[in-house]
Amino acid sequence: MSDSPSAFLFPLPLAPFERYMLADDRPGYPMTFVLRLQMAGRVRRSPFEAALEESLARHPLLCAFVDHSRRRSPCWVSAGGNRPHVDWAAAAAPLRYPKCERIDLASEVGLRIWVRQAADTAQITCQFHHSCCDALGGLAFVGDLLAAYGMRTAAADRKPEFGTLDPRRLLSRGRIAARTGSPMARVHSLWGTLCEAARWFAYRPVPLWSPTPAEPFQTTAPPVLEIHTRTLDPVESTRLHAAAKQRGATVNDVLLRDLFLAVNAWNERPGAERQRSRIRISMPVNLRGPEDDQTPAANMVTMSFLTRASRECGNRDSLLEGIRRETDWIKRSCRGRHFLRTLRMIFVLFGGLPRCVVGDRCLVTAVLSNLGDVSHSFAARFPLASGRMVAGDLVLEGVAGVPPIRPYTSASLMVSTYCDATTVALRWDGRRLSAGDAREFVDRYTARLRETLHRATT
Q: What is d(CA 66, CA 81) in angstroms, rounded to the nearest whole number?
């Protein structure tokens, strides 16, 4: 039997969340996310391209197409010799899409790469289709890419090492939505699914207020999306963890609480139209267990949604306590799985997503994805220099990323930690927020976090 994953993987039916990302994909709001790596050193093209080929062989869904011709459901199939678009240029060259921002998985693999090189620094930008993998899966891939590059450029005693991956694990990646256990557990699961659906439809959230006129829609391929980043240094990051611990909460709870406060204050500014309204934040939930450590890049998350009325944002302490209780319940009850089971039922009943799910209306006000320490998502092992990962003649200096946006979800944030520094990255909808608005919003959110640090030390 062939050792190629294509021999036993494909055709591979899409899992419910993969189908959801594909169904919600649209030209103006593609379901793609970005990871951007800041490197010290110069990227050598030949070893990088060889490393890319080796890394893709370890992550089959990043070199696959989606075949819609199957009778029952779309399936992953091998893309054959098709490989990701890789764009090389000097640092000053703008990043542009080959055709448009959207990745058509019927004819293009779900990964694009841009390399921008200065004299002694480089930036590597990766755009992933969210059906192929989530941000943690994307990090696993870029970790392998850097490791494979380091193996080709490092001295013998400084070479990175791959972790073990088993592509057969991809065969069971979609079963996370079906783990129900005993009959009583299945009843509880159904009840949870119905409650989750009721919460979804009972409260319609409001979008982030747009202070300035929206920019006109661009029909030509725009520059690759901008990202606004702000960084809490290692001292501030340590204090953020201490502030959360002091309140018996997690860092993620604090990040959510301060985002609710920032959004509520933004929407209650003079001139804002929707006051005393409900805010909903979408929170990706990782469903990987220890048994998934050897799974190649895939989408193994679900979504949970936290909704608060603006009046509930008046007391920061009670708001945090309510979020702490809810996120704890999400973990203990596996509430995020109810969302996947709802998707599964919808696909069985309707064959696709109804307009109330993918229509152009506000489903969530903002997205917050907290990756934690990104180094923990790398399956590969690296030598270190001053705490930073070394890949041959390159050193990883920083990582930032942003989730996708959809209509009326104007702000999508990703928080990541590397070398004890915490980076907040914002992607925004240029049709509803100007670049200046976006800078102001991420500044206000970061200021909320720093206010939390100050309160914890006074």
A: 15
Write down the pLDDT at residue 344.
72
Rounded-to-integer distance, Cα 136 and Cα 20, Å: 18
Specify the residue for token string 């439809």.
201
Residue 297 · residue 133 · CB < 8 Å: yes
In the block, which residue shows the tokens 């790469």?
Answer: 113
Return d(Cα 367, Cα 342) in angstroms, integer: 20
The residues near 21 (Cβ < 8 Å, ≥ 6 apart) are 31, 129, 130, 131, 299
How many residues make up the chain in this entry? 458
d(CA 148, CA 220): 36
pLDDT digits (tens, 9 = 90+) for 115-134: 999 999 999 999 999 999 99
Q: Are 296 and 170 in contact (CB under 8 A)?
A: yes
- DSSP result, 214-264: PPPPP-SPPBSPP-EEEEE-HHHHHHHHHHHHHTT--HHHHHHHHHHHHHH
If you average pLDDT over every residue of the chain, what do you get? 88
For residue 60, the one-letter residue type is P
Q: Is 44 exposed, middle or buried (0-12, 13-18, 19+ CB in 10 A)?
A: middle
The backbone torsions φ and ψ at residue 124, rounded to the nearest 5 degrees and listed phi first, read -115, 120
Contact 324, 167 (CB under 8 A): no
> 226 with 328: CB under 8 angstroms?
no
Can you give the pTM of this predicted structure?
0.91
CA angle 190, 284, 279 (to 5 degrees): 90
Q: Could you tell me where the DSSP H helices lie in 24-80?
A: 45-58
- In sequence order, which residues have a C-beta less than 8 Å from that of residue 172 and are 6 or more positions away? none
Q: In b/e form, how buried is each residue of 315-347, taking b as 16+ CB within 10 angstroms?
A: ebeebbbbbbebbeebeeebbbbbbbbbbbebb
More confident residue, 268 or 425: 425
**8 pLDDT tier (thresholds 50, 70, 90):** confident
- pLDDT tens across 169-223, in order? 999 887 755 455 556 655 665 666 666 666 666 778 888 988 875 555 444 455 6
271 sits in the region (left: phi over 0; alpha: psi -120 to 50; else beta) called left
Nearest to 31 by CA among 410, 411, 404: 404
User: How many Å apart are CA 437 and CA 443, to the nearest integer?
Assistant: 10
DSSP state of 290: G
Q: How far apart are CA 251 and CA 241, in angstroms?
A: 6
